[in-house]
Design a protein that fits this description.
It is built from three helices and ten strands; from the N terminus they run H-E-E-E-E-E-E-E-E-E-E-H-H. By secondary structure, the chain is of the alpha+beta class. Among the domains are: 101 residues, no CATH class; 48 residues, no CATH class. Strands 9-1-6-7-8-10 form a six-stranded mixed β-sheet. A hairpin with a 5-residue loop joins strand 6 and strand 7.
Length: 228
């Protein structure tokens, strides 16, 4: 009876852990679209005068490009990088040592005319290695970003992301970095090559993305820490 109760208790614990894991995964999936939270920006109330009224004011000269916290700027993704590396190594080492036999009265000790207790050591080792690596990436598109901070020197901190849901898969592009207000074009766009400290992420969620990723057992056997 005690064994049955222990087995039932173990099953309940395992079931509880599985349910908690599923709920955690579900909550993470729900939070993914809001990984970059929209910060509430407090705008000071306008000060009205006897003649000037903020509600009816029409500025005669104003730059329409983004420059204030809360404004939106479009980042053009024009990433196109490539890198290559190759190396070749060849080494060889040869060793030859002779060990002559003992001599008596200047003559070697022999048996049936053959010197004894003599020998030699020869060693020959070589190594050849060759490797090459090539890396390239290309990304194009547009992502609208929000200005979240204005630095003391006038530079703007921007953050933005775009989520696209197609059938059962979701893909997102996430961009963050620092831009100069002078680099923003008149059409309120800026290329990603002019974004300092840029962090650009492109990934996906869903069954299609999971099908293209190896399982945990395959990743275990492909680990570089394994001795074989």
């Amino acid at each position: 009876m005690n064994r049955i109760q222990g087995w039932l208790t173990s099953m309940l614990l395992v079931g509880g852990l599985m349910l908690s894991g599923c709920s955690t995964l579900g909550s993470r999936a729900e939070r993914d679209p809001y990984a970059l939270p929209i910060e509430e920006i407090t705008v000071p109330a306008p000060v009205n005068g006897a003649i000037y009224q903020a509600a009816t004011a029409v500025p005669l000269f104003e730059n329409v490009t983004a420059r204030r916290v809360g404004d939106i700027v479009t980042i053009r993704l024009v990433e196109n990088t490539s890198a290559s590396k190759s190396s070749t190594t060849s080494t060889r080492k040869s060793t030859n040592v002779e060990l002559p036999g003992p001599t008596i009265a200047g003559r070697p000790v022999t048996v049936n005319g053959i010197p004894i207790l003599s020998g030699g050591i020869e060693n020959d080792s070589s190594f050849e290695g060759e490797g090459s690596s090539e890396l390239g990436n290309r990304m194009s598109g547009n992502v609208a970003a929000v200005i979240t901070q204005r630095l003391a020197n006038g530079s703007l901190v921007v953050r933005g992301e775009k989520w696209i849901t197609i059938n059962q898969g979701r893909e997102f592009v996430r961009v963050s970095g620092i831009v100069r207000a002078l680099d923003i074009d008149p059409d309120n766009t800026i290329p990603s090559s002019k974004v300092a400290n840029a962090v650009i992420s492109y990934a996906g969620r869903g069954p299609l993305n999971d099908a293209n990723a190896p399982g945990w057992l395959a990743r275990f056997f492909n680990s570089p820490k394994l001795p074989f």
